[in-house]
Prior knowledge:
The protein has 406 residues and is α+β, with helices and mostly antiparallel strands. The chain folds into two domains: 2-186 and 350-404, 3-Layer(bba) Sandwich (FAD/NAD(P)-binding domain), CATH 3.50.50; 191-341, no CATH class. Helices cover 30% and strands 25% of the residues. The protein contains 13 helices and 18 strands. A hairpin with a 3-residue loop joins strand 4 and strand 5. The longest helix is centred in the C-terminal third of the chain and has 17 residues, at 388-404. The radius of gyration is 25 Å and the shape is elongated. The mean pLDDT is 96. Bound molecules: flavin-adenine dinucleotide. Residues 3-401 form the RsdA/BaiN/AoA(So)-like Rossmann fold-like domain. Residues 187-349 form the RsdA/BaiN/AoA(So)-like insert domain. Its cofactor is FAD. Pfam families: HI0933_like, HI0933_like_1st. Keywords: FAD, Flavoprotein.
Amino acid sequence: MKEVIIVGAGAAGLMAAGTCIERGLKVLMFDKNQRPGRKLRITGKGRCNVTNNCTPQEVIAAANGGRFLYSALTSFTPGDAMAFFEGLGVPLKTERGRRVFPQSDRAADIADALVRYSRGAELCRETVKKVLVEEGRAVGVKTDRGYYKAKNVLLACGGASYPATGSDGSGYRLSEELGHILVPISPSLVPLVERGGICQRLMGLSLRNVGVRVTAAGRRKPVYEDFGELLFTHFGLSGPTILSASAHMRPMSAGAYTVHIDLKPALDEGQLDARILRDLEEKKNRQFINSLDRLLPQKLIPVIVERSGVPGETRCNSVTRGQRKSLLAVLKDFTVEIESFRPIDEAIVTAGGVSLKEVDPKTMGSKLIEGLYFAGEMLDVDAPTGGYNLQIAFATGRLAGLSMGE
Ligand SMILES: Cc1cc2nc3c(=O)[nH]c(=O)nc-3n(C[C@H](O)[C@H](O)[C@H](O)COP(=O)(O)OP(=O)(O)OC[C@H]3O[C@@H](n4cnc5c(N)ncnc54)[C@H](O)[C@@H]3O)c2cc1C
């Protein structure tokens, strides 16, 4: 009989497996995929933002459910994660926003390092259908091929996003069958569907260095503000700032949120007005619609002119002060109303999951069933982009591995 069964050979499961092996335990690991670490291999657009070069306290502050992670993150800090991967022969680099990547820019290097680290665990390509419990204690699993016994069972099945990678939400069903409460799941770090058709007209346009502010109906303070890149798509908005903003748009409901885009964040209204005035004077005999090509990408011009309410054929030298003001307002506050999130399949992470109230934060052990442990995205924790989600998977996997070895 094995000491430990681990369900899921992803970021959390592989880390837990290696930790158990280091402690001399016999480990049996199940994954429905042929190749371990399938999701890891596509993280960070194939580059894997492996952690964030910050303190554990900063991860705790950034994450939903952060306080629960205190023990996990202080016993395996972002610094520890960096030393760990470098120790496994993967040199790292820190980029903007303290995001840490392998120097090679290859996510596969991270996945392969973890697979090497967990060598010694027996890996079975089988799908776990049920956790076996006897007298309140987890004693093994039933898979699509048979029954397996162990002293401890770790569920590290991931969330429900990108189900083609294997994390299709089955871990939630396994946990629910065991009597664990599930906090309803929802997509996070996910593109946004617009209300109306403005984004569709701008499809394919990517804007760098824009200001993004999200407001919620009935709330005075914006729920999110940042600078960066966004992308117009056939359904709405995507890109780094939008994915990050989505984590702050809960609960989502049709029409509840508006994204405000500042197309010229480097210029205040006075500076931008002076700039527009200069362009209009230079092109005084042209039509207004032909005066904006230095200010805006071509695709955006007809939409901006339409929204400003200034007839496109107006001669530049007859554009009034009031009309300039309307143009200015659109440039500094281009609004897109939001209808919904894109489906969970397209989310980077799943919010919600196994309720933290029923998991011991010091061990990752179930408070309901002895010998049952949880790690990674299936827990009700999630964080913004920046390497935090993998750090959480590694730290909780590590702590579960150590606890099972005790
Ligand atoms: C496109 C994309 C890019 C991302 N980029 C980043 C990034 O750069 N940085 C970052 O911090 N986070 C990133 N994330 C999030 C991060 O990948 C996840 O939070 C992390 O992988 C979660 O680790 P995990 O071990 O909990 O789950 P997973 O890595 O999803 O692993 C779960 C494993 O369990 C297996 N499994 C599930 N159910 C069963 C079952 N019943 N039987 C057998 N096996 C099962 C699955 O096949 C899977 O291999 C990204 C996510 C996506 C989708």
